[in-house]
Amino acid sequence: MEVKDFDYYLPEELIAQTPLKVRDSSRLLVLDKENGNVEHKVFSNIIDYLEKGDTLVLNDTKVLPARLIGVKEDTGAVIEILLLKNLEGDEWECLVKPARRIKVGTVVSFGEGKLKVECTGEFDEGIRHFKLLYNGILMEILEELGTMPLPPYIHEKLEDQSRYQTVYAKEVGSAAAPTAGLHFTKELLKNIEDKGINICYVTLHVGLGTFRPVSVDKIEDHEMHSEYYQMTKEVADKLNETKKNGGRIIAVGTTSTRTLETIMSTYGTFKECSGWTNIFIYPGYEFKAIDCLITNFHLPKSTLVMLVSALAGRENILNAYKIAVDEKYRFFSFGDAMFIK
User: Fold this and answer.
1) Which helix (H) or strand (E) holds 255?
2) Rounded Cα–Cα distance for residues 206 and 49 (Å)
3) Alpha-carbon span 269 to 252, nearest angstrom
4) CA distance 144 to 160
5) Cβ pair 169, 62 in contact under 8 A
6) Could you tell me if 12 and 312 are in contact, meaning their C-beta atoms sit under 8 angstroms apart?
């Protein structure tokens, strides 16, 4: 299967640069995966498509203020580091610009020495391992010195950093937000619960894959980076009960989807577990866990377009995306939403 088969035309002006003032006022394109029919709604209408006995699954990961600008101690050169993954203790995997300046033993200083990092390993694609050196609580230091690691297609400054977090973000550890969840408000979630819909949370810490384009021609040659996930016993029991009772499992976002499909593919049931997943879902994949998906509009030729194409069919997705472009929907992280029913 060719990567180019998942390309589509997107005018640059449709890439949302800032979030809307009201989270659930974004537009919602509803796609019927059986026949390809499309409806145009507002995100707050999502409640009309959820039924009593369904379970909505959200990713409660919280984004680290992981983008740091510092200087090399020996030369004063400006270095940008993005914390991607906590390996062990104070050892981190990071994405570095310009990486060619950073060798094993290089020390970079941030905030006049409040935080220092020493390179302990060199890898391809701008990846370095660092030992973090600091006094105090790391999260407090990152809150002071770091900023949100917005995707490279967002050029506007984010005035309110909390808008790149979901309202239910809890487990710190992501290098990017699970953006499908950005549309939910606390009020909307309460209304959904009041209607008799279960709400469950899993965790998947979004990592390097978010920032890496697909660079191969054939889909099968692409290698996904692994990301940490976890599910509690309480959530596993609720999901198994939903399946047993004939309810639908509705994933919020591709990260929730990948977590649920990983667990079901591994164990054949939902169970309390944690681990690392590099599951790659593209057309031909048979879904075992989810029935429906709430998601955003994704980059051309991305693994995320391939995932939604696996669920709804490539032609249905590309047709829906063309309609979204014609109707001037807003795309990507701060953009509008799609419900695949």
Assistant:
1) helix 254-267
2) 27
3) 19
4) 15
5) yes
6) no
Specify whether 298 is located in the same domain as 266. yes
Co-location of 229 and 115 in the same domain = no
Identity (one letter) of the amino acid at 210?
A: T
Q: What is the mean pLDDT of the chain?
A: 95
**CA separation (Å) from 63 to 36, 139, 156, 168, 250?**
34, 11, 19, 12, 23
State the pLDDT at residue 3: 95
Q: State whether residue 8 is helix, strand or coil.
A: coil
Q: Which two tokens stand for residue 337?
A: 């939403």
86 in any annotated domain: yes
Q: Is residue 151 part of a domain?
A: no
Q: How many domains does the chain have?
A: 2
User: Which CATH number does the domain housing residue 299 bear?
Assistant: 3.40.1780.10
> Looking at the domain assignment, is residue 57 inside a domain?
yes
Contact call for residues 229 and 261 (beta carbons, < 8 A) = no
Residue 24 is which amino acid? D
**Span 235-254, pLDDT tens digits:** 999 999 999 999 999 999 99
Measured CA to CA in angstroms, residue 190 lies from 187, 256, 329 at distances of 5, 20, 27
Strands 78-88 and 67-72: antiparallel
Structure tokens at 340: 């695949």
Paired tokens of 276: 């690392």
Answer yes or no: is 23 within a domain: yes
Please give the single-letter amino acid code of residue 162: S
Q: Are 78 and 61 in contact (CB under 8 A)?
A: no
What is the per-residue pLDDT for 215? 87
Expressed as residue numbers, the domain containing 24 is 3-63+160-340
Q: The whole model's pTM is what?
A: 0.92
Q: Domain containing 92 — which CATH number? A: 2.40.10.240
Q: 130 and 28 in one domain?
A: no
- Dist CA 297 CA 321 (whole Å): 8
Domain identity same for 233 and 270: yes
